[in-house]
Structures are given as structure tokens and as C-alpha cells.
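Exam revision sheet. Question 4 asks you to relate a sequence to its structure. Input first:
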Amino acid sequence: MRILHFINNIDLSWHKMLMDTLNAQERRGHETWVVFPPGGVNFKRISALRPRCVPLPVRSSKFDYLAAWKLAGILREKKIDILHTHLTSSALLGSAAAGWAGVPCVASVLKMTKKRRYMKCDALLPCSDAVRDSLLEQGVPPDMMRRVYTGIDLARYDDSARAGENARAEFGFAPEDAVIGSVARLAPMKGHSVLLDAFARVSREAPSARLLIVGDGELRPKLEQQAAELGVAPKTVFAGARDDLPRVLRTIDISVLASLEKEGLPVILVESALMGVPAVMTDVAGIREVVRHGETGLLASPGDAPALAEALLDALRDPAAARSRAVAAREFVRREFDVNNTVAQMDEVYLAVKSARSKAAAR
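Answer key, C-alpha cells:
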């Protein structure tokens, strides 16, 4: 099949996983194309690695009919069999273009969202049970959906993954420091304010603890001020956005997310598990699909700084138990998130929507 992936986003955090999917589809004999808005870092990354990458400028303020019409032209010109969209705005524009071109449209749904932008697609691929259940509650027909976890090329995470280069010296951490790391955009739903409150409690009990916050966003100045007011600024590093996640994950001893709201399924859960990093996170839908309390990590109630602090201290006090949970998490993730399984499931959906289109046209 000829498959075109459309992503209306210039700064994609999971571009490596997208490349894993494209490469796995090519290994299965498909011809894959990618359409991105030009100018962003992702177009540069992807186009440098793949010859079949097409730029498409898209206005972000409102529905861009011209861009949709141009995308329909690309679908016809390349004789595309399946349009696969990623992200909400991509689904809305892409399903219109696919309708004009007479091509089935499959949409990956990567976060909690309203159904309205997806209802002209032929099939939806929620990235987690939590996202699927949210769409079901909104009335999306169950036979329109199949939960497909985001796939990862496991070859990038072999048994020596933890033994590579880390960034402890770069961030000023001593060998004996216990580094708690959070990788997430600095947005209200990610709960960084609660995390800082929890870390202040952890720091009093475990003086060697350090906090590494990776990511950027509008809350950074406010969070830096909070760290100073709590007296933990000397033990906290705001690293900004990074493109060397494996190196960062080798730096930390505990991976933490303090999310306050339902998540789709944060990629950092999966990558932390593959790197063997123990997880302490909040008990919200999406996260709990990977982090099962006491089995593959520890969970705390969202918004509860004392509970999060206690879970972090539990992991610090008993590193052997934390490592045991990390091993179980790694086994689960390797089984459920292998990109080869992901693309096999996608193929089944592609074939189903193509068959349905053919039957409808024959009537």
C-alpha cells in the first residue's frame, strides 16, 4: 500500500517514534509518504532522512481550505491508498482532503479530545484505553475504533541502554546524588507546581535528592520562582527542551510525572520503562495503563504533594524494590509497544477501511 502520514505540527516531540513507524511500514513492503508544514524542526529532521517528505504550509488560526485542497491533490498525484493523520487539527483537515480525493482516512488520537474533529474519518486509533473510553463516552461507535499503542523500535533500547553516556556532570550532579527527573512540557495539567511542593518535602528527608525538570513552556518563570521560595532552587535544574532523551534518562534515578488531568499516554512512561528507570507518577487515566501501583511503579493521587513526596521517598529508601518494579515495567512495555506489533495492527485497520470503501462503491 501507499500510505501518507499527515502531521500539522512544526515541532513534534515524538518524531523518533514516527520514524520508527515509517521504517517498520517500509519493512512490511509499504511505500510511505509524510506531509509536514515546512519551517519547523521536524520537517528538517524528517526530510533529511526520507526522500518522500512533502512540505505543506497550513494556517493555524482557522480551517485552511486551500491547504486541504492541496493535500487532496497530493493524495491523487501520489496515488495514495491510505491517509493516516496524527493530532486533532490534522484529522479535521486531512479527513476533508481524503474525502475530496476519494481516499480512506485513519486518524491516530493521541490525547483526550472532543470527538467532533474526528467524525469524518473512516477509523480512529486511540493511543490508549483511556482515550478510547473517553471517545466511547462521547458516543463514538466502538466499531469505528481500535486501540493501538504508539510503537517503538526496541532495537534502540538494548540491554546496555543504561550503560551509555549520561548528563550528570553537565547538570552539576554528584555521583552520590539521587536524581528525580520529570520530562514534560511546562503546562498546568502536568502538575509541576505540585511536584516542586513534593520535592521540598523529599529534600528535607533525603538531602542528596536533586530535581531535574526537562521541558519548556509558559510556566517556567513562575516555577523557577516557586523553587526559589521553597528553598529548593539550588537542588533543582530547569534543563529546558532537550533532544537527547536517552542521555537524560541515563542521568536520573527516578522518573516522575505529577499530571493533574487524564493523559493520552505520555511517551516518557514508555521510554523510561525501556531504559529501566523506576517510575513514580500520579494515578490518572493513561498513566495507570503502564504504571501499575506496586508492580511496575508507584502511583500517588493527583494534586496531593504529601502523597507524591511519600511515594518518591519510598522509591529512594528501597532502590532494590524500585529496580524490581522497573524490570517489570520494561517487560510490559517491550511486549505491548513493539513497533512491529503496532504496524501489524495498523495494517488490519487499513485493509478493513479499504474493503469497506470498495463495498460501498460497488453498491
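Marking note for examiners. The domain at 2-151+338-362 is CATH 3.40.50.2000 (Rossmann fold).
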